[in-house]
Amino acid sequence: MAPPETVGVSQAPSVLAPVGVGTMWRAQPPPCLADLHLDDVIEAVTDASNELQRSVWNTPCDDLTVLDFRQAVVADLLRPDLRDAVQAFVDAVSRERRTAESSRLLAFRLPADLGRAESIARFADEMSTAAERLAVLDPGSAGLKQLATHLVAYTVSDDFRQLAEGIDSVLAEVHGLEFELGIQGGTVWVGPRPDRGLWVDAIRETFARFRTGTSPGPALPQPPKRFMNRVEAHVLDLVAQLFPDPVQRLRDFVAAHQDVVPVALWQLAEELRFYLDYLRMMRSLERAGVRFTVPHLQDDADGPFRVTDMVDVALALGVRSSTAPLVANDLVIAPSEKVVFITGPNQGGKTTFARTVGQVAYLASLGLPVPASSATLPLLGTVLTHFPRPDDPEHDRGGLADEMVRLRAVVDAAGPNALLILNELFSATSAEDAVGLSALILDRFEALGCRVLWVTFLEDLVTSVPSALSLVGQVDPDEPTRPTFRFRAQPPVNRSHAVALAARHGLSSADLDLRLP
Length: 517
Prior knowledge:
Elements: E1 6-9, E2 22-25, H1 32-35, H2 38-45, H3 51-57, H4 64-77, H5 80-103, H6 109-137, H7 142-155, H8 158-175, E3 179-184, E4 187-192, H9 199-207, H10 230-242, H11 244-256, H12 263-287, E5 296-298, E6 305-310, H13 313-317, E7 329-333, E8 339-343, H14 350-364, E9 374-378, E10 382-386, H15 399-413, E11 418-423, H16 431-448, E12 451-455, H17 459-463, E13 469-476, E14 479-489, H18 496-504, H19 509-515
Parallel strand pairs: 5-9, 8-12, 8-13, 10-11, 11-12
Antiparallel strand pairs: 1-2, 3-4, 6-7, 6-9, 13-14
């Protein structure tokens, strides 16, 4: 598990970072995850008990070396043969750890030891198979090459050989025990195998005459899995009394090998689940028509921002109830365009559009594919958000004061490689005051050199910044009150949607002139 707020230097092997690269894993999620609805995506994708996986999600990266390393791992895992081999390795490690933990809770020790011995034998066989498969498949990424090399070295080591040969020997001896089990007058007894033939042979001989053909009969259904009962457990105790030496060797071996998964293998399996769980979700959405791509990242925070057919991944997953349709949008931001304003009709998808851009930037900063058909992004290691919040009864600040306090925290965290997503800033004050405050904030953003994506109703603010990019939510030309949820670069539309909406409900200026004296 990743301890909170600690620096971990990646040692071989790892699939998250090259050897020797330090990473500050964060235990607490950054505030932007909730605003971007990525917290719901993480909840849907990850196992809540996997603290390492959660800490990776909480830690965006602006090191191009690390991101290239992860994207190479993703490219390997997009190969079905490699993905299946890696998934089998991860499943084997997880299953062995679960079996080891659950066996400690079983009431009957000898059945538990037998189950552990079988699990250890299965684990040894699965590790040998995984090493062979990965070596043959020859992954291209440094991360999976390290995994394959480490697995081969582990399976040819003396420790592994002693484990595999030892458990095979112990199980062969136990499985070779032969005895007679009898039930007579309410008494169950166990004795040595008698000299006479086995009952099973006599039964087969008796019923052989009733066979009507040589083809096998229908397969018997597998009995349901269940826990061993007290009678069965006591039968095994009688067997242990009959064969004390082999049973003691079994018990001694299991006691000496309670945890057979090396820490390095467990760490690798946990890291790989970060990729595999996301890619499983991605394949599910691709079957539903959502496109994903591995973004091209530029080692320059001032580079262009070009994304095609991007969609809101939380909306695609349906993890939040919403009436908004899933509409793909394009976005092109030139290097000189540091501020992007988003305007348009109410309920026209402005917040969803801004959220989608933030999702793309954040997922790219983790080295993951993004929900788009193509993407070229600058290296943005920090995504910061400021979305409206309901009044907090824990403090006596007003709405505007609370906005300013939260905005100050965003500004303090911003830098040249940050993307700021602001949604309806200063909506708690008048339009005139909001424009004045916004102008002051824009000066601060310009000094910081960060990128800003700003959803606003202040069209005067948009027109006052000629160097900014203006994106406007479009409406159906035949029905101006119906938004299309698509956005296009153009000047603000001077509230034409509001005028059309007023006319639709009989509240236009002409309508009011007719009704009012």
